[in-house]
Design brief:
The chain is mainly α and about 180 residues long. The chain is built from 9 helices and no strands. α5 (about 70-85) runs antiparallel to α7 (about 100-115). This is TetR family transcriptional regulator.
Length: about 180
């Protein structure tokens, strides 16, 4: 039941983002649309930004199934395609929400995308593991910023070019 309610709230949130500004989406409105009360919302999510992160994850992981393939190229390509197809939602959030929250919602999705590759190597040595985590974190922060600038440029650069640039970078880092 818990999963069903969370899914319902995620879907309702994404639908509302297509119709009204982020700043006009209230917990009361979301709860009402799902037939639950405000307390039920807070049982599942800390706030609207927590819901935003979960809704992105739900859309990309469960609906788009972007991580079913093992290549990072497929995963990041699917992520960028989703962003472009849902430009109304993304622009709505950029215009009406605080940027750090959008970055926080995108971060785990991008990190998971680049982790799909064969670049990283499993290691039991703590020092190497720590370096790998640092590298993924560093790259994810950079790629997140790059993607946001791509959105602000009205998706001017092609997805294929972005994936090619990232491929070149990742090969340089991990070779």
């Amino acid at each position: 039941m818990r999963q069903k309610t969370e899914t319902m709230l995620c879907v309702a949130f994404m639908e509302l983002l297509k119709k009204c500004p982020f700043s006009k989406i209230t917990i009361q409105k979301l709860a009402g649309q799902c037939g639950v009360n405000r307390q039920t919302f807070y049982y599942h999510f800390d706030n609207i930004y927590d819901l935003m992160s979960k809704a992105f994850e739900y859309e990309l992981v469960h609906e788009s199934r972007i991580y079913e393939e093992v290549t990072w190229e497929y995963a990041i390509n699917s992520f960028l395609q989703w962003m472009k197809e849902n430009r109304v939602i993304i622009r709505n959030i950029l215009a009406n929400a605080e940027l750090p929250y959008l970055k926080r919602a995108m971060y785990p999705l991008i990190a998971k995308s680049i982790s799909c590759g064969s670049f990283t190597q499993e290691s039991t040595q703590p020092a190497i593991k720590q370096q790998e985590e640092f590298c993924i974190n560093f790259l994810t922060i950079g790629i997140t910023q790059y993607v946001l600038e791509w959105v602000e440029s009205d998706f001017r650069e092609s997805i294929e070019d972005i994936v090619d640039h990232m491929s070149w970078l990742l090969q340089k880092v991990y070779s």
